[in-house]
Amino acid sequence: MKQWTAIILDDQQASIERLLEMMKDVEYVNVAKSFTDPKRALTYMRVNPIDLLILDVQLGCMSGFEFLESLPKLNFKTILYTAYPQYEDQGYQRNVVDVLLKPVSPIRLKIALSRLDAEMKSDLPELSDRDSLQHYDDYFNVKGPYRYVRTIVRFINITHVEKAGNSVCIYLNNGKDPLISNSTFEHIMDKLPSRWFIKCGKGRLFNVYYFHSYSHNQIRLNHVEKLIPVGELAKHPELKTFLNSNNI
After folding, report:
1. Nearest by Cα to 82 from 69, 96, 39
2. What is the pLDDT of residues 57-79, one digit of tens each?
3. pTM for this structure?
4. Which of 10, 172, 180, 188 has the fewest CB atoms nearer than 10 Å to its CB?
């Protein structure tokens, strides 16, 4: 049985808990995460492919429709979950799988999920839930911290990389001093998967998994105290595209 990966975004935790309770026996849908904050949901969706988004329309700081418009182009289905029947037409105009009215009954929810299952099997048979950085098994071997010792560095743990003279500093999410590599910056950049690691200046790149925000030509990363300087966006089209598609 194919299991679809879902997340829930609703500004009311009680509504999320009700959905989770009703979905616990639905074997073909796995709710990986739930969010009350749209920004946290966006951060998660940037690097974790999903099959289904169960989305409230009224999110407090924005509408569910505005949230969908703020997303980069991603391959997933949406079920709207709202207390306001006037949003049904808008939802179907955006090709959502279904529109559920609060409080939804268990039977009505399972009908919507069955519809999702049928659409996913017919329209998106090629989707894979393994295409995320957490499942990326490659790594570096970096010399040190002692002579004749090498440190294994998994890509998921790298927050950013900076060139420093003839060496390259590799920063990890543990907050400790960077590991120093004698490889060239270009060699390390070629080794890292470009889907998650974006060059943001001369001799600098960052892991989008840790991206928090961008302001005044600087990037803030989660688990990193200092801000990362950014070069001219015109010289870094991949970075410009990323920032434009990940701004709420």
Report:
1. 96
2. 999 889 999 999 888 777 899 99
3. 0.59
4. 180
